[in-house]
Amino acid sequence: ELSVSKFSKSLVINSDDVQQEFLDMYIEDNKEIRSYGFDHSEYKITASRLKNHFFKLNVELGGDDFVSAEVPLVAKHSLRSYAAAVAVGDILEMKPESIKKGLDKIKPPAGRMQILEAKENSIIIDDSYNSSPLALEAAVSAFYDMNSTKKIAVLGMMNELGVFSKLAHEKIGK
Q: Looking at residue 91, what is its pLDDT?
């Protein structure tokens, strides 16, 4: 993924997932690197769960400025996508209020950690779109973090894993 840097002057990276050694290895010294994430980032994320499927998100912009929004998400890791949007908006010199308005319009696509409220305080997490081991692990983790009297998870197949398919399914099953 870092090979795309050859075609740009600057990068916006998820500092939680991209280790410095890979940046040193793949990124030329003349590139401007901006980062977002939960730790050691220019656009630092802080968040708290408001209820099962909403987070209060704050992304620091520098100084005392930040963007704050209530976002409809099940899993904490998904907040990084919002932070990436905040970072790009800030780099493009959008006002924090305009960035927030954009965040307020984002809705999870069908089949991707979508929350469906049901009877008797039960919640259905629809993550039925084709999944990957990492995405399914995040979905199951979010499922267990939720506080609900009844829980139903609709999980997608982990296709296209080839020889790793059996091992990946067994690992998630444990």
A: 94
Prediction pTM value: 0.79
Neighbours of 166 (CB within 10 A): 9
Question: Which phi-psi region, left, alpha or beta, contains residue 141 (left: φ > 0; alpha: ψ -120 to 50)?
Answer: alpha
Contact 168, 174 (CB under 8 A): no
**DSSP annotation string for 78-113:** GHHHHHHHHHHHHHTT--HHHHHHHHHT--PPTTSS
Average pLDDT over residues 92-101: 95
* Structure tokens, 170: 């067994």
Q: Please tell me the distance from the alpha carbon of residue 25 to that of residue 160, in angstroms, as a whole number.
A: 29
